[in-house]
Amino acid sequence: MDLSRALERFATTPILYLDPVTGDWEDTGLCGSLQVYDRFITDRAFGQKKRVLNLPAGDPLPEEYGNFCLEGGAANYILESLNEDVRNGEAYGYSYLLRVASVEAQVIADVTEELSSGASAITGEEVIETHWIDVERYRSENSKTFDDVEYTTSTLSLPGIATVDVSHKIRLVESGDVYTVSEVFDSLKLTVVRGMLAGV
């Protein structure tokens, strides 16, 4: 039995990617089948934020793009992991774990200028990149300055292509909230940031 042909039969939905330069959704030329789950299978976010996308063997999803969506769908996704489906030593399909990315965010950096005294001063900020991301509350952290004050530390999941470090900030476009970056690490194919809401 040709398992790839079986996957092709159901992989009928065109997959689009977000062009990072123009901000337009473009056709990848690939079609897939999105699997929807109505119960928790792994971690608490699985049934609400994660989906499995199946593609037949051939061209895999282009990982050089950060955000994907399905034609006609309302949700944006980021790629969390890839598993090849293999039988008799050959890949017959690809199974992707996608995470819903419902928040548009900008990676921003401070612009500095050297003063005549030789000291550096922050004179503004610039947008480095824009991505659709996922934001989750991680935990609360005690203030080092004030008793009985807690700050909310959040987990921000960005596409693996995102360029971010602890000198950057992340601004959520719709709310205007700005997060300072305390930690950056890779998790499967995601770039994950631990951040605290600035100004609270």
Quickly count the domains: 2
Question: How would you state the average pLDDT, rounded?
Answer: 84
Which class of secondary structure composition applies to the elements?
A: mainly beta
Sequence of strands across the biggest β-sheet: 1-2-3-6-5-4
CATH class of the largest domain: Mainly Beta
Calculate the terminal CA-CA distance, rounded to whole Å.
60 Å
User: Number of DSSP strands?
Assistant: 12
Label the overall shape: elongated
Radius of gyration: 20 Å
What CATH architecture of the largest domain do you see? Beta Barrel
Query: Major sheet, described briefly?
Result: 6 strands, antiparallel, barrel
Order of helices and strands: HEEHEEEEEEEEEE
Structure commentary:
With 200 residues, the protein is mainly beta. The chain folds into two domains: 3-100, Thrombin, subunit H (Beta Barrel), CATH 2.40.10; 103-197, Bacteriophage SPP1 head-tail adaptor protein (Thrombin, subunit H), CATH 2.40.10.270. Helices cover 6% and strands 58% of the residues. The longest helix has 8 residues, at 3-10. The radius of gyration is 20 Å and the shape is elongated.
Please summarize what this structure is:
The protein is mainly beta and 200 residues long. The chain has 2 helices and 12 strands; from the N terminus they run H-E-E-H-E-E-E-E-E-E-E-E-E-E.
Reconstruct the topology from this structure.
Layout: H1 3-10, E1 13-18, E2 25-35, H2 46-49, E3 50-56, E4 67-70, E5 77-87, E6 90-100, E7 103-114, E8 120-142, E9 150-159, E10 169-172, E11 178-187, E12 190-197
Antiparallel strand pairs: 1-2, 1-4, 2-3, 3-6, 4-5, 5-6, 7-8, 7-10, 8-9, 9-12, 10-11, 11-12
